[in-house]
Design brief:
The protein has helices at 2-11, 34-38, 51-55, 115-137, 142-148, 158-177, 180-183, 205-217, 240-245, 248-251, 287-295, 339-346, 356-366, 380-387, 397-409, 418-434; strands spanning 17-23, 27-29, 48-50, 62-73, 78-83, 86-91, 94-98, 110-111, 150-154, 189-194, 220-231, 234-239, 270-273, 276-279, 307-309, 321-323, 328-330, 441-446, 452-457. The protein is α/β, with parallel strands linked by helices. Helix 1 (2-11) runs parallel beside helix 16 (418-434). It contains 16 helices and 19 strands. The strands form four sheets. The chain has an eight-stranded mixed β-sheet with strand order 6-5-4-1-19-18-7-16. Strands 8-14-9-10-11-12-13 form a seven-stranded mixed β-sheet. The protein has a two-stranded antiparallel sheet with strand order 2-3.
Length: 458
């Protein structure tokens, strides 16, 4: 979420505020390009930028504190910081939280959060080829070499699909240009472990089709399942069907990505050897986010992994707190919550059913409020016929409700990508710059490790 906060600062009219930035790092990283650094396409310096250089002359209008935001008190409207000058507490009128998410990569795997992580992935990938080359000189079999050249990415987010593709390109380059003799014996394999078959559904259908084509071209294997255990050189995965048969408690550890080793299904998990395993699974909330969620009303902050916000990025249950990036999730209204109101509004002739004209009007009227209806607009008649199970030419309330269940099933949240964070940061920067309401202090918490920005109206 560093990029989102940086975009906020770039687009903010700092002449209206006293701005304080709190961060343990005085630079930010273009996180979408970590996969490029991990595969040698870009250098670390090419994807990082000092805060002072990025903001230019605007930096002179900002107070920078080298420290880590450790606690937020929504009742007192303060942020506690542990910095080079010791612990201090700063007040805010508005707070923008953008601390990102924490990686919980288990032992024997590599995370991909920082530049150091990316460089480690590249180093270990090359070392795997060197190790396999040494094995080949000692007469290792093709099967042994194949196992020594397996690269596993544990995913479930858009970034993991991108990483799998970049790793595949990298290992094919190494095979062609640096290890052709090794490639003649055994071909490296890249495998992406996803929690379910719809793990990439944050993308629209066109992007997903293009991604599938690229995966096929690079011979990337997709494994649908839940990671049960990771040992040195071996990852054990429960298939989707096996995972579904487990109790929620048994597979809910680490947010359903790493089941307990004592699970009864551990013996049923399939073992996949690997040379390098990159843990790019959805990350978990930072400590400061979990602490803030506990301080807010639990009935409105029901998301386990992030702060729920409204459409304007205001944290639900709080006053003056905003959240962007990986630490936030916009609460989406599902169609079923409005089913009866929508049915009544569209049943213009009050006959208790919807005909095709009324159904078409429903999509036109509500697709702005419910974006999940947009892709159905071009298939109105097909959708209507499929929902009309008794073939009487109209939809009853029950048929209408069943249809909305199907639409809601395809509902996805905004992808946790840097592009989303950039757009959110730009939105808030422009919102604060044009807001005519009175305020004194606005703090925006951003993250490379844990960052905060405070803005005070001048």
């Amino acid at each position: 979420s560093t990029g989102g906060a940086m975009t906020l600062l770039r687009d903010l009219d700092v002449s209206r505020y006293n701005v304080t930035v709190v961060s343990p790092s005085n630079y930010f990283v273009l996180t979408p390009y970590l996969a490029h650094v991990a595969t040698g396409a870009l250098s670390a310096i090419a994807v990082s930028d000092p805060l002072r250089d990025f903001l230019g002359a605007k930096f002179d209008s900002i107070e920078y504190i080298d420290g880590k935001a450790t606690s937020i008190d929504p009742s007192q409207r303060t942020v506690t910081i542990d910095g080079l000058a010791g612990r201090e507490v700063i007040a805010y009128d508005r707070l923008v939280v953008a601390v990102g998410a924490a990686s919980k990569a288990p032992k024997h795997t590599l995370p991909l959060v920082t530049l150091a992580d990316a460089e480690a992935v590249r180093r270990d990938t090359v070392q795997a080829f060197e190790r396999a080359a040494a094995m080949a000189r000692r007469g290792a079999s093709a099967e042994e070499l194949s196992d020594a050249l397996r690269f596993v990415i544990v995913g479930g987010a858009p970034e993991s699909s991108e990483l799998a593709y970049r790793v595949a390109q990298f290992v094919r380059y190494l095979e062609r240009h640096q290890y052709p003799n090794l490639a003649a014996i055994a071909r490296a394999r890249v495998q992406l472990v996803e929690s379910h078959t719809r793990a990439r559904n944050a993308y629209d259908a066109k992007i997903m089709r293009a991604m599938s084509t690229r995966f096929q071209h690079e011979a990337i294997d997709t494994i649908s399942g839940v990671v049960q255990k990771v040992d040195d050189g071996v990852i054990r995965v429960l298939s989707t069907e096996q995972a579904a048969s487990e109790t929620a408690a048994q597979i809910a550890n680490s947010h359903s990505w790493l089941g307990g080793s004592g699970s009864s299904a551990a013996a049923d998990a399939t073992a996949y050897p690997f040379a390098v395993c990159v843990w790019a699974a959805p990350r978990q909330p930072c400590a400061i986010i979990e602490d803030l969620r506990r301080k807010l009303a639990s009935d409105v902050q029901s998301h386990r992994h992030a702060l729920l916000t409204d459409d304007h990025l205001r944290v639900l249950g709080s006053d003056g707190i905003y959240a962007i990036g990986d630490c936030a999730s916009i609460a989406q209204t599902r169609l079923l919550e409005r089913v009866m109101q929508m049915f009544t509004d569209l049943d213009e002739n009050d006959d208790g059913t919807l005909d095709i004209a009324e159904f078409r009007e429903l999509i036109d009227r509500y697709q702005h409020e419910f974006p999940q209806l947009t892709e159905w607009a071009e298939r109105t008649e097909e959708l209507f016929r499929s929902a009309d199970v008794n073939h009487d030419g109209v939809l009853s309330a029950a048929e209408f409700k069943d249809l909305l269940v199907e639409v809601d099933r395809d509902l996805t949240r905004l992808p946790s990508t840097a592009q989303t964070a950039f757009q959110q940061g730009r939105y808030l920067g422009r919102l604060f710059s044009t807001d005519k309401s009175s305020m004194c202090v606005v703090v925006a918490v951003l993250r490379l490790s844990s960052h905060a920005v405070r803005l005070a109206q001048v």
